[in-house]
Design a protein that fits this description.
Length: about 80
């Protein structure tokens, strides 16, 4: 089962390898994409993480990881829950 998690307010110089390393012990990352935040008023990066876990595990991770510091930035984490 795969879940999607969005991590916002990442530093501009974050790399996929660095983010996978930061998340690796907490979340089984399947695929990760780093992109510019769509908000034109910020220069932040955001990441869309596809993790090999259930929706419940993704939501639990998001609640626990939200507000953590990655490379000096306090990140905002949310799980994308799809109803089907």
């Amino acid at each position: 089962m795969a879940s999607t998690i969005v991590i916002r307010n990442l530093p501009d110089d974050i790399t996929e390898e660095g983010l996978i390393e930061a998340l690796g012990e907490f979340l089984p990352v399947g695929k990760l994409e780093i992109m510019d935040d769509p908000n034109e008023m910020t220069s932040d990066k955001q990441a869309v993480v596809h993790a090999d876990c259930s929706s419940f595990e993704a939501e639990t991770f998001a609640q626990r990881f939200n507000g953590r510091i990655i490379q000096g930035r306090k990140v905002a984490v949310s799980a994308m829950l799809f109803m089907g």
